[in-house]
Design brief:
Elements (H helix, E strand, L loop, with lengths): L1 E3 L2 E9 L13 H4 L1 H4 L4 H8 L4 H22 L9 E2 L5 E2 L2 E2 L8 H6 L1 E2 L2 E8 L2 E9 L19 E8 L4 H11 L1 H6 L7 H9 L30 H25 L11 E4 L19 E5 L3 E4 L2 E2 L4 E7 L3 E8 L4 H5 L7 E2 L2 H10 L6
């Protein structure tokens, strides 16, 4: 948990890989995950069950649960009142009416709506990440009713990547096409200078991070013959690639814009470096120890330094990385004064228990 002024930042991870293991097909979740599915709206439930792969359906199910869970627990309201909407850019939000609304007409009600909690989720390779920002109550009883949550706008974004999920495919493509062509295939979502750094920069990682005996390959030029690169050298370059992807996804999600934002190619994480891999951990929900942290990457937008975004990239076990991004447009120092800590592991049982305590189930 991190705090700044009246702002509180919470970050959570849920591991879905060992959940509902009896389900081999998505439709099986209707029978083995009824307790969780009953907490969703009909539309959310339908979206979950449309996924072809059960692993994707499980991540989507937990993602939906987390959004309602954080609203119910943060605002101390019944689960049935955690009705989510979308802002003008399509980002999921929760709005609540202040007690004063009950004394006014429709126009006053619209003007009195508050956004007490801001959130964003991401998922990859079985893990789901959640970042939450709240305007902590400044008055009231601290139990939801009558609380004034303040009106600070807080933008948050999270992303999680797994460097090994597509490792075989990535290695095959790089050996067949070359590293530069692999990078060029994704150039439309990177900044121009970032693409050049990936292709020709020194993407050095500590030799201890990988298993190859030939340490010299870790600092090899990205333009080197891919067929002559060791698997460890390719892994080091891929780690840099996915670190950049994670940086950018978290930042763009923080802004609320899609990956096709007009300014996307003008965004640059200058001379970015991936965090070293963390030690191997268990695959259970208490495993995957956090590792090295990157907080100091310079961010540019159209050549101008971005000074209002607090961005933190960290390794999680040997294969995962998470990135958090926070800004407060009305007063940039509020966000910049927050030290973003590690993500906390959250169990499905905790989510379900809290939901049922809030009256959830049987929508």
């Amino acid at each position: 948990m991190a705090t700044g002024s009246n702002i509180q930042i919470l970050q959570y991870l849920v591991d879905t890989r060992e959940l509902w293991t009896e389900a081999t097909k998505t439709k099986d979740l209707e029978h083995v995950a009824t307790r969780a599915l009953d907490l969703l709206t009909g539309d959310e439930r339908a979206k979950v069950l449309r996924f072809y792969f059960v692993a994707d359906a499980k991540m989507a199910l937990v993602s939906h649960l987390l959004k309602h869970w954080v609203v119910a627990t943060t605002c101390s309201i019944p689960w049935s009142q955690t009705q989510l909407g979308r802002d003008e850019r399509g980002k999921p939000i929760f709005l609540r009416s202040s007690p004063a609304d009950n004394r006014g007409g429709e126009k006053q009600q619209q003007q009195q709506q508050q956004q007490p909690v801001f959130f964003n989720v991401s998922h990859q390779a079985g893990l789901v990440s959640l970042i939450v920002a709240t305007n902590r109550p400044r008055s009231g009883n601290g139990e939801g009713e009558g609380d004034d949550f303040g009106d600070t706008q807080i933008d948050v974004g999270t992303d999680i990547v797994c460097t090994s999920e597509r490792r075989d495919r990535d290695h095959k493509m790089i050996r067949e096409k070359g590293w530069s062509e692999f990078v060029d295939m994704h150039a439309d979502v990177f900044g121009r200078a970032e693409t050049e750094h990936l292709k020709h920069g020194n993407l050095l990682l500590a030799s201890a991070a990988y298993d190859d005996d030939d340490d010299d390959d870790y600092g090899a030029s990205a333009s080197a013959n891919a067929s002559a690169m060791t698997p460890g050298a390719i892994d080091a370059k891929l780690r840099a690639f996915y670190a950049l992807w994670c940086y950018r996804e978290a930042y763009v999600k923080m802004t609320g814009d899609a990956l096709l934002a007009s300014w996307l190619n003008d965004l640059e994480f200058k001379d970015f470096r991936a965090p070293e891999r963390a030690a191997a951990g268990s695959t259970t929900q208490v495993g995957q120890p956090a590792g090295q942290i990157r907080r100091d990457c310079e961010i540019l937008l159209a050549g101008e330094k971005v000074e209002d975004a607090n961005v933190c990239l960290r390794s999680l076990g040997p294969d995962f990385m998470t990135c958090s991004a926070v800004r407060t447009p009305g007063d940039k120092e509020l966000a910049m004064g927050i030290e973003l800590g590690p993500y906390e592991w959250l169990s499905l049982e905790q989510i379900l228990s809290d939901a049922e305590m809030a009256g959830g189930g049987g929508r």
